[in-house]
Amino acid sequence: MADEPQSPVSKKMKLDCPDEATATVTETPSIDASVAELRGISTCDDCIAVLLQLDQEQATALKEIVQPEEQSEPTYTKPICPICLGTFTHGNTPLIEALADKVKEVASGITTCQIHLSLPKHITARQIIISRWVRSKSACLVPPTPEDFDYLTRVRDYLSQRICQLLGVTLDTKSEVSISIILTCPQLGRQFEFPHKSPSMQKNPQAKRMFKMGPFNSWSIPNIQYLFTEIAPEDLQAQKCWPPNSPQTGVKVEQVKVKSPSVFIAGRYNKYARGITNTPLHIKGKSFITSVSEQVAPAFEKAFEATDHKFCSSGREDVDVRMLGSGRPFYIEILNPKVTSLSADTIQNIQDEVNQYPHVQFHHLQIIDKSELYRIKEGEEQKSKTYCALVWVKDLPNIDLAEKLKPYEAGRAHLTRSKRVLSLKAEIIDTHFIQLTLATVAGTYIKEFVHGDCARTTPSLATILGCTTDILLLDVLTVDLEWPPSHH
Ligand SMILES: [Zn+2]
């Protein structure tokens, strides 16, 4: 016995079970024969190890056997593995490198990620057919269960780990950065669309139900597993799929997409000129007027190499209203950024750059955490705002204006049901003009309060004074909110 020549795989198998020497002897030739059969159709060593359910040691031993003709054969002429289509091969570094490069292209500077890989479903069909084929040649092999070698999961896990290794990124299923990769093998196309229509499946009621299934790509994995397990070898043979041969080209990287979490830039802005909107006003897709958001958001979108942005401020002023004082709190949500952070210096540079436009000025720009955003929403509803308005009065009544408005000065009298005006002061400029300074709870519409909005708002300045009034100019003086959160 000891003199018999043995392959490393057989030797390992013997060492694995020294107590059952007899059983191993009968099993040994079939494993070697099966390895040879699988290699004969260009199956890669990794697929052989999975298909024949070899353990770690046996799999390593398998790699030690180098077939004589393989030694001199350059890699590029090597046929592609008919099962994994080259995705699973440890030697297939070009595919891993190409994938890692594409991921780097769309997501630089990430530390963790989750990967969603879509693979050609042909792999499942091929795995089942070749497993059946090699087992038909050797009665000694144990019939596998589908879970024994769920190829798609194995290939997914393997590729994801290798890509992350190469990028130095931690694979984490809870990561906010999600990378989706689609690998296809267009050359194979609809190669496997026949089983449910094959002679051996004619009387199979389950296969009949599948008769109206669309293209192979849309088939479910359980359906593929069922059909290729049930179909007779003769039918596979008739389709030249017993076993399926190596494709001429391997998988193609169809798409690599990254979905990364938003970054938030907070700050305050001043609007020193009228005729500027808060967010772009598009008419038939064209923007006709300068907007606050357009002055700042694109610069950050560019710096973060993002795909889009959202601009959100604590309330908003009309196009003809200026925003003075300490400015209005706002934030920009940078969507799907490739760059995940910017240094304080870079942010300062962007701030200086956007402030070249004198009519809108930004300050305290900084990156904030998503968890801080609630403050701006809360502030919008609860915090007070101070306004200054130049009001035209048709006939200023001969009254003591200060005395008349006194009840409203400290917010003692309720101007509206929701007590929205907190204080009110008026200064007479001349017989037709007064300057109003008023503080309100967010949400009060100042223009309405001044002219009464056709008597719908009562009391209004018009009803208090008993004459027609109109608002000529309006400025926002303060928006009372501590923002950005870290700025005091
Ligand atoms: Zn393979």
Automatic annotation (TrEMBL):
Its EC number is 5.4.99.25. InterPro entries: PsdUridine_synth_cat_dom_sf (IPR020103), Pus10-like (IPR039894), Pus10-like_C (IPR048741). Keywords: Isomerase, tRNA processing. Residues 264-480 form the Pus10-like C-terminal domain. The keyword tRNA processing applies. One of its GO terms (molecular function) is RNA binding. It is an enzyme of class 5 (isomerase). GO terms for biological process: tRNA pseudouridine synthesis. It comes from the Eukaryota. Belongs to the pseudouridine synthase Pus10 family. This is tRNA pseudouridine(55) synthase. It comes from Dimargaris cristalligena.
